[in-house]
Amino acid sequence: MNMSDTERTRPVIERMGYEWTDNEDEASLVGILACSVRQKAIDKVYTRIHKWNKRKNKENLLTFVTGCILPSDKERFLKLFDIVFPMSELQELPSMVRQYGIVTPTSLREDKEVIYQNPRIKELKEKAADLILNEHMADFWNINPTYDSNFEAFVPIQNGCDKFCTFCAVPYTRGREVSRPSTEILEEVENLVEQDYKSITLLGQNVNSYGLDKKGDEISFQELLRRIGELGIKSGKEFWVYFTSPHPRDMTDEVIEVIARYPNLAKQIHLPVQSGDDKVLIRMNRKHNMEKYRHIVHTIRKLIPQATLFTDIIVGFTGETDEQFESTRRIMEEFKYNMAYIAQYSQRPGAVSSRWVDDVPKEVKKVRYHTLTGDLMKISHEHNKTMVSKTLRVLVRGKERKGEFLNGLTEGKINVRIPLTDNDLIGQIVDVKITSATEFSLAGELVNKSSMSIV
């Protein structure tokens, strides 16, 4: 989501006359798209802004911050950054820059009456203080993005979340769920297909709740996928469409049936479970239990047996016992995830669980994290070994650091390493015969150039 937001932020800034630079030290406008999911990411924001504010002693510099920002961080950011605004107000950034000019955080203090001589500046600062969420998402979505890649793209279809998981701050940083008009989504996807993009990811904090906020006025998520599937058949081109992140409560059999039906809907599903224990799920306010989740996985295995399954898991959530952690270990074995993004629980200010005692010691969290990671490595390796000697379609994404190999992804998002023979392969989908497997990756050889997709 941050990458997608960046692709819409950059053209807004460039239209103001700014030119992009990879050298931060020569920039006169610097900004951050924050993410409040992890404290470590927010800590980096504070480190960076303190560095930038020191530069202001010697040169003119304008700073801004947007993205996912908790109320507690927002209050501090207002004193540190020149401009603070919600992502939905991105279209206002040129006006903010023109009105503020090159200033320091000190000059924005309320005792500087010159700031309030201009009503527009007062209005913008009050908006920043309120951090209005989602009010103008339509304006944000209408921005034509500058894609970072010419073969992979992110397409936002929904913003915000109504689930209010007790460990999560998203509803407080992104607001309630708002669905983007399907006509805009389909138009953006169709344009990408016409430009021969090979990987397209539909984005949302709760992506498969798409349309539920506009019942009767908007199509459902499965219908959106169906129309994209039909678009793929009509185009006759090979490309893969992914979506993230869904919620188990909103995952229907119909969605899985549509994915099974259309070749261009990628056979990879990210389905966050967070815990394998029903009591922990209740404390997390996940609004699904393991019976519901198990039904979804069984349906996937039945209708899309070749699909890879990814998930998110939190270990050491408040009150999690050894027995409850073992329940999570058991589902790792039962569902045989190809990948799991495992996090050690940490309190996020603003989330409900931040008011609870974090009673699982850090050392216990670390042990559980490493134990579960070990389980994942074993299971993933077993699956990857079954791929040896098979020929798979692989999207070549780039060169590895040492330049001796290309790296790519299968349709199921398994990493593949290929000997470097031709730089022109980057951005193409090719046939690769798998020769070896490790815990989280494969290695193989290019079969022949005649099997390549034409870009």
Describe this structure in a few short sentences.
With 455 residues, the protein is of the alpha/beta class.
What does this entry look like structurally?
With 455 residues, this protein is an alpha/beta fold. The chain folds into 3 domains: 2-130, no CATH class; 137-385, Alpha-Beta Horseshoe (pyruvate-formate lyase- activating enzyme), CATH 3.80.30.20; 391-451, Nucleic acid-binding proteins (OB fold (Dihydrolipoamide Acetyltransferase, E2P), Beta Barrel). It has 15 helices and 16 strands. It has helices at residues 2-14, 39-55, 71-80, 93-100, 113-116, 119-130, 137-141, 170-174, 182-194, 221-235, 253-261, 278-284, 290-303, 322-335, 362-385, and strands at 29-34, 62-67, 83-84, 152-156, 158-159, 178-179, 199-203, 240-244, 268-270, 308-315, 339-344, 391-399, 405-410, 415-419, 429-437, 441-446. The strands form 5 sheets. The protein has a 5-stranded mixed β-barrel with strand order 12-13-14-16-15. A 3-stranded parallel beta sheet has the order 1-2-3, sandwiched between helices. It has a 3-stranded parallel beta sheet with strand order 4-7-8, covered by helices on one side. Strand 1 (29-34), helix 2 (39-55) and strand 2 form a beta-alpha-beta unit. Helix 10 (221-235) runs parallel beside helix 11 (253-261) and helix 14 packs parallel to helix 15. The longest helix is centred in the C-terminal third of the chain and has 24 residues, at 362-385. The radius of gyration is 23 Å and the shape is globular. The two termini are 26 Å apart. Mean pLDDT is 87; it is low at 102-132 and 450-455.
